Amino acid sequence: MTDLAGKNVVITGAASGIGRLMAQRIAARGARVILWDINLAGLEALAEQLERWGYRAAAYQQCDLSDRGEIQDTARRVIAEQGAVDVLINNAGIVSGKPLLEISDEAIERTFKINTLALFHTTRCFLPGMMEKRAGHIVTVASAGGFIGVPKMTDYSASKFAAVGFDESLRVELKRAGYRAIRTTLVAPYFINTGMFQGVKTRFPFLLPIMEPDDVAGRIVGAVEKNKERLLLPPFVLALFPTRLLPPALFDEVVTFFGINHTMDDFKGRGS
Q1: Using CA of residue 74, residue 78, residue 84, residue 89, what is the dihedral sign?
Q2: Catalytic machinery residues
Q3: Range list of β-strands (E), the chain
Q4: Does any domain span residue 141?
Q5: Mean pLDDT computed over 60-79
């Protein structure tokens, strides 16, 4: 079990959605939450709320996760002002929700910078401090879309497939190097009922529900406390893994039957 009390916890994408909800829950456990987001007004509002509730003062840093230099500068400030980071939750992510030929080059590159490359940059900044203490926790919020590709999500799914590989390689790398007390957790949720995925739908909500943000946030925090290495939400996502062994044409038919290939048909997102 990981006790979050007294720990320094960095959360990216903390100003809204499950990032905000995780910050509230983790602060309630006695941790100092260090909030990162590009949305400065959202960060300030959340930090003020946490302080009103009587939790430990939350530090916050405006940071554009598509900018490697800004990530590195922000990380240096965090370490200088708050000390070593105990838990890193790589939560920030974006989605285009368009067919491949309708996504601009800039949008594709930004998706990979935020959803994938930022994982490398933040982890490389904070992992040395964890290695020095021989303890820590790195959480990668990926997606069920990192296991199954979906139409209108070529950039998003590809970036999340990469996130899954990042977590798996890092987990084994740390164990082989003798850093077993530096834990990793991969989070792969189905669609979450936030503005980011407004308009998505599901064919079988009893199997693959559009998940509520507060429930997801609570499950992630619980997974960190229990040192779970993988959290798939809902559990039925795990039942889809054997379908990867099927021939591609049959795999496509199974996924279509469950409605997964139609989830993005009415996608609007935050731009609606």
Answers
A1: negative
A2: 156
A3: 8-12, 32-37, 59-62, 87-90, 136-141, 182-189, 230-233
A4: yes
A5: 96
Is 209 strand, coil or helix?
coil
Contacts of 55 (CB under 8 A, 6+ apart): 27, 28, 30, 33
In three-state secondary structure terms, 186 is strand
Q: What is the CATH number of the domain that holds 66?
A: 3.40.50.720
Phi, psi of 14 (to 5 degrees): -90, -10
Specify if 1 maps to a domain: no
CA distance 272 to 270: 6
Arithmetic mean of pLDDT over the chain: 96
Instruction: State what percent of residues in the chain have pLDDT above 90.
Output: 94
For residue 209, what are its two tokens?
């529900």
The predicted pLDDT at position 269 comes to 87
Contact by Cβ (8 Å): 213, 22: no
Asked if pLDDT for residue 111 goes beyond 60, the answer is yes
- In terms of residue numbers, what domain contains 69? 8-235+243-271
> Phi-psi region for residue 199, left (φ > 0), alpha (ψ -120 to 50) or beta?
left
pLDDT computed for residue 272 by the predictor: 44
Instruction: Please check the confidence at residue 93 and state whether its pLDDT lies above 90.
Output: yes
d(CA 215, CA 264): 22
Per the listing, tokens 């799914």 go with: 157
- Residue 86 CA to residue 92 CA, distance in Å, equals 18
Position 271 scores a pLDDT of 60
Task: Reply yes or no on whether the pLDDT at 57 is more than 80.
Answer: no
Amino acid at 78: V
Q: Is 3 domain-assigned?
A: no
Examine residue 76 and state whether it is found in any structural domain, yes or no: yes
Q: How confident is the model at residue 58 (pLDDT cuts 50, 70, 90)?
A: confident
